């Protein structure tokens, strides 16, 4: 039993019809022109860059703040230490990657970025795997909540930085 074949007008099968590429030959994009010095400066002023070290500082500050709050509310030093460790699981690998990518003499290719990202993920995984050995007793909730909050700092800082850049223009 053969499946039914679709027919196009004119009695030809769909596979036998020629592909019509006439729509693809049009030049859709406008020609690219280099920016003048003033246009480039205006573009940089409109979209300022954010320092990776500033984001790391914010992550560390959030880790310390969450650890203090968690320690005070739980009345447990183990909870505060676990929360600090959760922040360290984020901040230390990120700092290592930032140093590797933006440090003196660092190469900025896709391959280098991939290698540093793999090292960062490996270090984060190793730190999480070692947490029951290093922290006794361990408060998993404090550690994981702080870890997630530190990860979210990147998005919040970038959003706040973008809003500040729009207000200054």
From TrEMBL:
Keywords: Cell membrane, Membrane, Transmembrane, Transmembrane helix. Pfam families: ATP-synt_I (PF03899). Residues 1-31 are annotated as: Disordered. It is a multi-pass membrane protein. Its main location: membrane. One of its GO terms (cellular component) is plasma membrane. InterPro entries: ATP_synth_I. It is found in: Cell membrane. Residues 20-29 have a biased composition (Acidic residues). The chain crosses the membrane at residues 55-73, 79-98, 110-134, 140-161. This is ATP synthase subunit I. It comes from Aquabacterium olei. The lineage of its organism: Bacteria, Pseudomonadati, Pseudomonadota, Betaproteobacteria, Burkholderiales.
């Amino acid at each position: 039993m053969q499946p039914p074949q679709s027919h196009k007008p004119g009695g030809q099968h769909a596979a036998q019809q020629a592909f019509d590429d006439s729509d693809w030959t049009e030049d859709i994009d406008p020609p690219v022109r280099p920016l003048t010095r003033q246009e480039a400066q205006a573009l940089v002023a409109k979209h300022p860059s954010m320092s990776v070290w500033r984001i790391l500082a914010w992550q560390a500050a959030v880790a310390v703040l969450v650890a203090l709050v968690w320690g005070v509310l739980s009345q447990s030093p183990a909870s505060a230490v676990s929360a600090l460790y959760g922040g360290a699981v984020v901040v230390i690998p990120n700092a290592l990657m930032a140093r590797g990518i933006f440090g003196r003499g660092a190469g900025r290719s896709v391959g280098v970025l991939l290698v540093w990202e793999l090292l960062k993920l490996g270090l984060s995984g190793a730190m999480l795997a070692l947490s029951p050995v290093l922290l006794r007793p361990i408060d998993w909730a404090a550690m994981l909540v702080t870890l997630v909050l530190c990860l979210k700092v990147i998005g919040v800082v970038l959003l706040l930085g973008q809003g500040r850049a729009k207000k200054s223009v």
